[in-house]
Design a protein that fits this description.
The chain is built from five helices and eight strands. By secondary structure, it is an alpha+beta fold. The chain has two domains: about 15-45; about 65-230, no CATH class.
């Protein structure tokens, strides 16, 4: 009786087919790394700058000048920074609105552009990074954000502008963001739906904030920004 023929030996992953995958995988990884580096360099050269853009700053005014021209509930004069007392009053109103919003309680707030800029200047994390103007029931936002925390972007700044137009029905999710400029270059409005420098898309961040704060109404009327919460708490 003849012996059975030995079963074919398997070389596992050391045969020629698997050996081809190793250099192919290395090439693909190198290509991916090169693509990422190219993307960073492209964004670095195209949409960032070596210096922050000059943003207007509120002009300090003596306390008596502000008190003589405003009341406790009236808006700040155009271009005039708040006194410490006035800033505290604005912050108190904003914090009360934000606290009610997070708790999904009914709340409403009205802010002029000067009051919004006072809040920005009063926040150490935002100071010098943004400025707002309001006219013709639309807002214009200018930002200059350092990019030091991002790989290969140290010493660069994201300088940009955009116009915000509320929806006629006041739905904040339908607000239009147009006339977008990055590094003094006009870009498509859908840039807000793209990731830049690893961030979530700007529109996604805005919508997340609106949902977290239960904001149901966003309007600009008589050069005042108006926000209202839905008050969905039970």
């Amino acid at each position: 009786m003849s012996e059975a023929a030995p079963a074919p030996r398997s070389d596992g992953c050391l045969n020629k087919g698997c050996l081809v995958l190793i250099p192919l995988s290395i090439v693909l990884m190198l290509a991916l790394a090169a693509g990422v580096l190219w993307g960073i360099q492209h964004l670095r050269k195209t949409y960032s700058a070596t210096a922050p853009v000059g943003l207007p700053k509120p002009i300090a005014a003596p306390a008596e000048e502000v008190s003589a021209s405003t009341t406790e509930s009236s808006p700040l004069p155009t271009g005039v920074a708040s006194t410490p007392d006035r800033l505290r009053e604005i912050q108190t109103r904003w914090y009360a609105f934000e606290r009610s919003a997070v708790q999904h309680q009914k709340a409403r707030i009205e802010l002029t552009a000067d009051e919004i800029n006072a809040l920005i200047e009063g926040d150490p994390q935002l100071r010098g990074k943004g400025f707002v103007t309001v006219a013709n029931n639309a807002g214009r936002v200018r930002v200059s954000i350092p990019l030091d925390q991002f790989f290969m972007l140290g010493g660069r700044y994201l300088n940009g502008e955009a116009t915000i137009q509320p929806s006629p029905d006041g739905d904040p999710m339908k607000a239009r963001i147009t006339n977008v400029l990055l590094a003094n270059q006009a870009v498509p409005d859908n840039i807000l739906d793209r990731r830049i420098f690893g961030w979530l898309p700007i529109r996604t961040m805005i919508n997340q904030w609106l949902e977290e704060h239960d904001v149901a109404v966003f309007r600009i009327v008589d050069d005042k920004v108006i926000g209202e919460t839905a008050g969905t708490a039970r």
